[in-house]
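Friendly challenge for the regulars: who can give me the structure tokens for this chain first? No prize, just bragging rights.
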Amino acid sequence: MFQGIKLIKSRFKVGLFLIAVSLLLCSLIAGCAQSQDFDSQLRTIIKPYRFDFIKWEINALGEEVGKLFGGRQETTDNGIAEVIEYFSNVARIKRLESEMEAIKTGTRQGDAASLEVELSRWQQRNMEITDNVESLLEAQIRDALSQQGIFNPIYDYVGVKICFPPVNFKLGRTPYLLVVSPRDRIESIREVALLPEMTREDMESIEAEVDKLGVSSLVVDLGGLATYPSYVTDKVDLRFVLNTVAEEWLHQYLAFTPLGFRYLLDITGIRRNYEIATMNETLAGIVSKEIGAIVYEKYYARGEMDDAELEAAESGFDFNKAMREIRRAVDDYLARGEIEQAEEFMEQKRQYLAANGYHIRKLNQAYFAFHGAYADSPTSISPIGAEMKELRSQSDSLKEFLDTVAAMTSRQDLAESVR
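First reply, four minutes later:
Bragging rights claimed.
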């Protein structure tokens, strides 16, 4: 999520500077300790599973060097067709993997060997067109940003219409993230990236060991990482990818603003401020959804509801409302010091959600600490989300909204800005 301040045209030079800053800041994250003993024990538990950012960045930037002379992907009908094909294949791959898992566990019968051949064919095809898909989506998102007058963090001072940081991302199997929260309150106190190859058994083993340290922990899937290039999962639909690429770019963009700089101080542990983190995440989420929607509606919309909307319409179950009610109840339990009761309540509600078609592997304090950082998400009860939405409705443009919030340095600034 870190970028250089100079406007440099070469993606390679920008990348080298970014990786240097990224690695430096990543190395500081472990410094925000409750105690040296806690961190020492935590490092021992996660050591075999820790994701190597240095290795990934070197490989990713090496691939970018090879693209420097490949030219920019234009928005053509053929390119759009490849994007549609890619994400259709993603859906096929997920279906085949689900069928193979069912055969493996004995819950259904079938020819696993033939499914494996078909799966390999779709995976190979997506590997062949991944670079084209990435390049085209980068160009489309860059165009959407420029149409909104969003170019770079210092545009109002220099007036140079250059998209900086350059929109650049990689599709792939993203790492998992270990989130650690105290048991007596909902707050993320540690976040550590873990290997994407881990099994469910690995995750549960790590969580069990970390929980023995007297905290609440959870290994979660990551949709994207604001490294450079951004790292985005290849197991989701097009809408999600568009929103995530835009959101990770905004994190990079915001790093050069007053709000984003204070967020960097928070994530590196230099100066913790959960409200600043929530403001930053919520701002990036709101703006990215608008940018993603612009691209989707222009090139890919077909008028149908997405899977989540369709499920909600068919079931009649309001997941968002249920999650907010659960979160409020958990906060009440913890405020009274009733930790065990809160944890029993969350497990009961996890089973209730599963009965209504929403399967959450583990619902605990760490779950809410991770998802609650987005004030516009169903797991958050922070007023920051409502205030952000109100400020957006008062703003004449997306750029005005982005600039206004990016200049803020405190939660009070946001509250005072809502007329």
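The longest helix spans residues 112-147. The mean pLDDT is 84. Your move, everyone else.
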